[in-house]
Amino acid sequence: MTDESLALLHQVIDAHPVQTLDLTGDAPEMHPRFREIVTHARREGLRVIDRCNLTILAEQGVEVTASLPCYSLENVAAMACSRPASPG
After folding, report:
1. Is the pLDDT assigned to residue 85 strictly greater than 60?
2. For the chain, N or C: smaller number of CB within 10 Å?
3. Within a domain: residue 71?
4. Contact 29, 1 (CB under 8 A)
5. Is the pLDDT of residue 86 over 80?
6. 20 found inside a domain
């Protein structure tokens, strides 16, 4: 996204009743001004979706930490709308 496109995006967010900013295409989170885009949208009350292709996970020095919302298989499955996996 060019600086001109980014400026236009800010103008659209400010001037129109947009509810969601859906960022997609390649790896939006790798854009050097990604935080600025998201911060501006969230400040204006927009829901932000980052359709990530996980490219950033291949970057040197990136550490991924994942956690489950609960320790119980039944509760995790209920939150994920699926059946619990058998432990083992």
Report:
1. no
2. C
3. yes
4. no
5. no
6. yes
Long-range contacts (CB closer than 8 Å, 24 or more residues apart) made by 30-34 = 30/55, 30/56, 31/1, 33/1, 33/6
Number of domains making up the chain: 1
| Residue among 23, 12, 83, 84 at smallest CA distance from 51 | 23
Q: How is residue 3 written in tokens? A: 């600086």
Quick: pLDDT tens for 42-79: 999 999 998 888 777 777 787 777 666 677 777 777 76
Separation of alpha carbons 15 and 2, rounded Å: 20
Predicted pLDDT of residue 3:
87
Q: How far apart are CA 67 and CA 79, in angstroms?
A: 13
Backbone angles phi, psi at 45, to 5 degrees: 85, 15
Q: What is the structure's pLDDT at 19?
A: 95
Provide the residue range defining the domain that includes 25: 3-80
Whether 88 is in a domain gets the answer no
